Amino acid sequence: MRRFEYHRADTLEQASRLLTDLGDDTFLFNGGTDLLVEIRERLRRVRHVVDIKQIPGLSDITYDETRGLTFGALVTVGRLENLALVRQRYPNLRAAFASLGSIQVRNRATVVGNVCRASPSADTIPPLIADGAFIHIYSRTNMRVVPLAEFFTGPGKTVLAKGEIVTGITVPPAGDNAGKAYLKHGRRKAMELSTVGVAVSLTMEDGLCNDIRIALGAVGATVLRAPEAEAMLRGTALDAVTVKNAADKAMEECTPISNVRASADYRRDMVGVLTGRAIKQALEAFA
Amino acid sequence: MKRIVELIINGEPRDMTVDSCRSLLDALRDDVGLTGTKKGCDVGDCGACTVIVDGEPVNACLMLAVEAEGRTVETIEGLQPGVDVLHPLQDAFMRYGASQCGFCTPGILMMAKKLLDDNPRPTDEDIRFGLSGNICRCTGYTKIFDAIKAAAIEMEAARS
After folding, report:
1. How many domains does one find in chain B?
2. How near does any CA of chain A get to the CA of B21, in Å?
3. Both B92 and B74 in a single domain?
4. What are phi and psi of A165, to 5 degrees?
5. What CATH class has A61-171?
6. Domain FAD-binding PCMH-type, which positions (chain A) (predicted)?
7. Residues of A with CB under 8 A from a CB of B
8. Nearest CA in chain A to B23
9. Which of A109, A246, B158, B159 could pair with A33 in a Cys bridge, judged by C-beta atoms 3.0 to 4.6 Å apart?
């Protein structure tokens, strides 16, 4: 493996200082399942890694009915995947977590790490955006909270400034009138990156769709919302014709590229198929 | 920079002196001499290097040796309950011919051990999900499934 220096931070302040002081080739080291691969395959030039896993207070998972689900930066995908609360209240998150890498990878990889890597195909991002999640950011001068939908600026790029560190994510509470789904489409079921990922989170009231968020993965420079498709669905009973028209609209709203995993045309078609299917699956919560 | 890492490997306290950028896999194989854990892809795709750290299976290639400080690591060398006594999974793998070239076997055995510890009577779907991070390049999955199911029955009989 290409050589790098390993630093262990005991506090957020120390980690932040190391990030600013050690120069551009310094990276936070959390689960490491992406970073170590990038170092080994020489995809990223790394001189220093700053291990944050000893920092106290970043491993907690909490849930309450007003604030929702909050988990710290060190919480692994596997821990959340196996939580009864996630299985019951957030089937969309559960589907995304259980489809990421392998069990071995999920025992190391963190959700915050997957989010901060900012890959357009990251499985955890679409359902978190559809749920309206917020991300907590530490800096040495202040803390800020940013809607996850505004966190990404491009593939691998976020609003994080040098020395800023994500400490956790909050997902709003899941009410009894909520339906959620995440569908991942790949060439195989396990150990696969998404060709297309579609997340739908909706709420129903008196048989009508109160609110809906659609988030599309791997069909743009960042995970995208489909605002026009969403507008077509709000206030309707989500009948088959309306859903079909909205799914067609979502196909227009995405901006896929062709690459080794699929062509742009195929991805666009799959957005149409999966958007309809995800809405149907989200509605199963009310069946 | 070299660091001394104190940890427990297969029940024994050990210390390793390692470069801080060394993977746990390389440290186990080259510094500790436990070559049962295999290096397949070295990027977390194949599962050949699966070891159990503090009770959870991980890819030893995707963990730094320095991160194992104070932890408990179980490798294939520790699976045998005693000298000349095989773990029921090892015994079943031999009887069912669930090992062809053998390179994936240590990782699959560690993963199967964890699977049966958590879920003594797994369905085919449970086994498929449990082993989805372990690739057998010889594609001998049918016999691997048969062996795991046979070991599960034997282990349950031994408990009752």
Report:
1. 2
2. 6
3. no
4. -135, 130
5. alpha beta
6. 1-176
7. 1-6, 8, 32-33, 36-37, 40-41, 51, 53, 78, 101-105, 107-108, 189-191
8. A1
9. A109
